[in-house]
Structure formats: C-alpha cells, structure tokens
Amino acid sequence: MEFSIKSLQPGRTRSGCVVVGVFESRKLSGPSAQLDAAAQGALSTIAKRGDVDGKTGTTLMLHNLAGIAAERVLLVGLGREADFGQRQYREAVAAAMRALNSSGAKDAEFYLTALEPDGLDAQWRVQQAVTVARETLYRFDQMKSRKDAAEPALRRVTLVVDKADARKAGSGLEQGVALAEGMALTKDLGNLPPNVCTPGYLADQARELGKRYRMKVQVLERDDMKKLGMNTLLSVAQGSAEPPKFIVIEYRGGAKAAKPVVLVGKGVTFDTGGISIKPAAEMDEMKYDMSGAGTVLGTMKAIGELKLRLNVVGLIPATENMPGGRATRPGDVVKSMSGQTVEILNTDAEGRLILCDALTYAERYEPAAVIDIATLTGACVIALGHVASGLFSNDDALAQELLGAADRAYDRAWRMPLWDDYQDQLKSNFADFANIGGRPAGSVTAACFLARFARKFKWAHLDIAGTAWRSGKDKGATARPVPMLLQFLLGRVRGA
Ligand code: BES
Ligand code: MN
Ligand code: ZN
Q: Is 14 a catalytic residue?
C-alpha cells in the first residue's frame, strides 16, 4: 500500500473512494459538509434518515453519488465531537481502513487526517493514520499452506491535510511507514512458532538487519558467554538443547563521541518455567516470551529505515527455558557476570536471570540510558491489565521522557515504584539475594532484582507481559512497545 499527502477539495477528484468523518450529532462539518454540497445534500439526507449515527467506528459505504467524481463515499463515525481524541481517531481510521480493504476501491482520498483530535498536529495525525492503516493489513499466514484472505484491491491512499501542514505531514508519513515496518517485524517474530523462532533464528534476523541497515552485529556463543562470566544467563540456557545466543547490534547514526542509548530485550524463545514448570493451560503463549527481543529488533529496523541520527545499541540475551537433566534446580546458587551471587529459588523467574547479565554487559558502552524490555511477570498483568506497560526507573527525568513518548505514541505506560523497601523481599540465606520475592508486588520485586545490576547508569525497565500480545480468538503479537520506543528515540534526536 502506498501513501501520499495532498491538500484536496472533497468531491472534485476521480478516485475509488472519498473517506470523510461524521460526528454523532449527524451535523456534517468540514470535508463532509463540502462533500454534501457537491452532492446536492445527498449526505445530509442520508444522515437525517438515520442511516448514519456517527458512533465511533461505524461506517457506511455509498456508491455513485451524483455530483461526486469518486466512485464511492465512505462515511466514518467519529463519536461525540467533544470526546474526539487519540483513541477515537485511531478507531475511526482503523474502521475506515477495514471498510476500504473489503471494498473494490483501488485508491482513496482520506480526509480523516484533516481532523484535529485533541488539537494534535498533522505529523501525529498522518503518522498514526499510516501505522493504524498498516496494522489493519497485517496478516500472519506464513505457516499456513493456504492464505486466509484475498489481498485487498486498495493500492494507493492519499492522506489529505491543509497545505500549510504539508511539511509536518511528510515527516509523519516517513515515520509512520518506518514504524509500521518495524512493528511488522516484531509481530512476525512473536507470532512465529517456538520451533522456528529459536535463539539462532533471532540471531539470523539480527544479522539480516545488520546487512540491510549497516549495523554492526555480533553474536556471542555459549563459550563466549562462559568467558565473560554470564553464569545466570547460562544457568537458564543449560536445560535446553537449543544453543543460547547473546546478540549485540550497534547502530551508529549519531556523532562518534555521543553515548548510545542501549535497548535490552528479553529473548526467551519459549518459557516452560524449567524445573519449576508451568501448568499446561495456555503454555503455548510462552512463545511470546521473546517479545522484548522482538521489540528491540523491530525498533532497530525502524531507526534503520529512518536513518536516525543517534547511536543505539541493541542487546538480546536469547535462550529457551526448558526442564531436563541438565536444567538448573531450585536452590542452585549462581554467580552473575557482575560478581553478585543469586539463589535461584524458582526457575520460572528466568527473565531477570538473563537480563541481569545483559545489563552488566551494557556497562561497557557508558550508555546515555539503558532501557530493558521484557515480558517479565504475570503480576504486572494483574496490576495494569492489557492497557499499560509497567515502567520502572532509577531516574525521574528518564521516566518522564518515556511516559511522554508513550502518551504521544498512544502506546501507554504507567510508572511503578522501585523503592528500596521492596528489596528486603529478595533476601536469601545462602547467596547475595534470591531471584524471587514472593507473591506481593511481584512485578516490583522483579524490577528491584534488575535494579541491582543497573546502578552504573540511568536505567528504565518496561514490563510488557500484559501488552506484548493478545490472547483468545484474536491471539497475536501487538508489537508494543515499539511505538513508544521509536517516539522516545525521535525525541532524543531533537534533544541532541
Ligand atoms: N514469562 C513469564 C512472565 C509471564 C507470565 C508473562 C504470564 C506473561 C504472562 C516469566 O518468566 C515468569 O514466569 N514469571 C513468573 C515469576 C515468578 C516465578 C516470580 C510469574 O510471573 O509467575
Ligand atoms: Mn518464566
Ligand atoms: Zn519468562
């Protein structure tokens, strides 16, 4: 699908479809009023008859209206004008795109981008429209012998904005396409079955990115990790026949001397729980336990597409977590790369064990900031559900910066506490500390564990256990929090 930007008058251009919005009042305004005038009142008649009620996400496709050059007119409900914000805008765009995708229209003039939800600028409107549109087209049918659905006829979408907004809209378009590309990669990696998306597969994907976008990629093998003393990471990997990989991706788009932002992604390609094995129900969803890694790869892809002028390093500790004769036992004590010893009381708290060595590895970059992304705890899903990712940080400014990016991207996060008071729950009689802190505040104690390895830099941790994928009949990866991270990195470019 191709997107372009223009400032147009509705009704005048030949196209497959004109897409305009209607608020719940049914009073036509802006482009829909202009279109109505061109059609000699046909649209207001239809609204009066009650065929459109303007409820968010409803659509009505009309054909061959007299006075309109386009083959079709698509009316899209926007909800109440006073409530029209980010969420309603995104819903309306998605509904419009779904209607277009299932129509025969080959091209469309899209006027929703001329609306101003919450006074948001044209860059935001276009960027969101493009990513939402691309999301409605996303399919995962690589593993099916027959594709589910036919390709939509729609080829070209012209996004309409005011002439004065053309430059902003252009940058929104570029960002939207790059983000959509990155998100599609993240989704694919998450949705792939765990027998395909192994640590080795993630390493190959990183190498591909490296070739395509001139990033330096290095893959450490088990022996390399042994030499570095990454024993907590190796303790997770030791029960698996699949070799672990520690993936390093360096993107240098900024000044030579500029300190990089380091992104660390949890890459557990399947989490059985290990000897502390998980119950059978929904265990298949633990293929998504590499979503942090997928987020890092997708974000790197987006910044490669945008040729972002920033230095960014991606670190991915990748392994399976399996039971077996060589697997770690509850009670094992292991020395991490940092030198701190850990009593592994539950082998299912494995994410923190692989992330902690990656955080220690990050020290060598003297990073401007380190952000880890992990499907870390079921407790985070209990705390925040599937709406917000959990954000933890040892730096208030960094936390605010991420929350701001999350709001703008509509990929929201909520800050959780990281007070030392919680550290007591990790006390161990046999090692420096344990890898679990009991049931209370499970997502906080997991973050507290990581904080012990992040003392040397500004650090944030995103627990995406509730946001990285959807369960049930629409099971699938969401590619969150790629939008938030890209927005954050874009902000750093301007700030530099
Ligand atoms: N990958 C899981 C976390 C998870 C569970 C994410 C369910 C999404 C849905 C993680 O490795 C894990 O098993 N965490 C344990 C920690 C516990 C043993 C302290 C959990 O959340 O139960
Ligand atoms: Mn686990
Ligand atoms: Zn896990």
A: no
Q: Candidates 269, 348, 386, 471: which one to mutate for ligand 1, based on the most atoms within 8 Å of Cβ?
A: 348
Predicted local confidence at residue 27, as pLDDT: 84
Is 139 one of the annotated active-site residues of the chain? no
**Whose structure tokens read 């027998």?**
195
- For residues 55, 57, 63 and 66, what is the CA-based torsion angle, rounded to 10 degrees? 50
pLDDT tens, residue by residue, 458-468: 999 999 999 99
Per-residue pLDDT of 309-330, as tens digits, reads 999 999 999 999 999 999 999 9
Residue 16 CB partners (closer than 8 Å, separation 6+): 70, 71, 72, 103, 104, 105, 106, 107, 108, 153, 154
pLDDT at 495: 55
- CATH dotted code for 2-161: 3.40.220.10
Distance 444 CA to ligand 1 centre (A): 13
For ligand 3, the distance from its centroid to the CA atom of residue 313, given in whole angstroms, is 23
For domain 180-495, the CATH superfamily is Zn peptidases (3.40.630.10)
* b/e per residue 459-488 (b: at least 16 CB within 10 A): bbbbbbbbbbbeeeeeebbbbbbbbbbbbb
- Residue 321 CA, closest ligand 1 atom number: 11
Cβ neighbours of residue 441 closer than 8 Å, sequence gap 6 or more = 379, 422, 425
Distance between CA 42 and CA 36 in Å, rounded?
6
Amino acid identity of residue 2, one-letter, is: E
Ligand closest to CA 272: 2
Catalytic position from the list 156, 278, 309, 456 = 278
DSSP, collapsed to helix, strand or coil, labels residue 119 as helix
Closest by CA position to 241, among listed 174, 299, 127, 323: 323
Q: Which sequence spans correspond to the domains of the chain?
A: 2-161, 180-495
| Residue 151 buriedness (CB in 10 A; 0-12 / 13-18 / 19+) | exposed
User: Is residue 377 in contact with ligand 1, taking CB distance under 6 Å?
Assistant: yes
Which atom of ligand 1 is least distant from the CA of 289?
A: 1
Q: How far is the CA of 346 from the centre of ligand 2 (A)?
A: 9
Instruction: For a ligand 1 pocket test, name from 377, 426, 433, 480 the mutation site with the most ligand atoms within 8 angstroms of its C-beta.
Output: 377
Rounded Cα distance between 301 and 29, Å, is 40
Cα end-to-end distance, the chain, whole Å: 34
Catalytic residue among 301, 352, 408, 452: 352
